[in-house]
Structures are given as C-alpha cells and as structure tokens.
Amino acid sequence: MTLGIRPEHFMRDGEINQVDTIVRFVESLGSAHFGYLDLAGLEEPLTCALAERPATGSVITVTLPPEHLYLFDANGSALARPRNASARDAA
C-alpha cells in the first residue's frame, strides 16, 4: 500500500494526522513556495505547498487531511473511497 496526497492539500494547522517534518529545501516560484520535507522513515522528501518560506533545517508540523488522502495498491491502482464517508470517519 502507498499513501498519496497532493502537495497543495497539506495543511500547516489542523487537529488530526499531524506529523513533524524537517525542511530539506524550499523552492520559491513567485508567491508560491514548495517545501521538500524530510519525514522519518521515508527516503524521498514530502513535497508541500507553503504560504510562507520556512528556514532550511527548521522543524514544521504538517497535517494530512483525511479527505485528501489516497491509497494505492502494489500495482499503483487507486483504491475506491467508501461512499458517504465523512472526513471524521476517515480519521
């Protein structure tokens, strides 16, 4: 199983699914910033859209909103979401 989330769906505030990450690198594209964040246990960094530019090496907490998480099987096929499931049920 692989867990997927789009960079623009990470949140900097939230109450569930919080993870602490370390900023590896920040790419600024005009007013948009994309952080490449190290998370314990992952070889590749998470890519996260950010409103502000954090310092390299700083620790930031990001939230993984359940309604924006996707599961993929070993072949890369997305698993279907249950119908009528609320964000609270997905947590």
UniProtKB/TrEMBL annotation:
Native source organism of the sequence: Sphingomonas alpina
Membrane-spanning ranges: none
Task: Spell out the protein name for this chain.
Answer: TOBE domain-containing protein
Short name of any one Pfam family annotated for the protein: TOBE_2
InterPro entries, per the entry = Mo/tungstate-bd_C_term_dom, NA-bd_OB-fold, Transp-assoc_OB_typ2
In what residue span(s) does the Transport-associated OB type domain sit?
3-72
Gene Ontology cellular-component terms listed: ATP-binding cassette (ABC) transporter complex
Output one GO MF annotation. Answer: transmembrane transporter activity
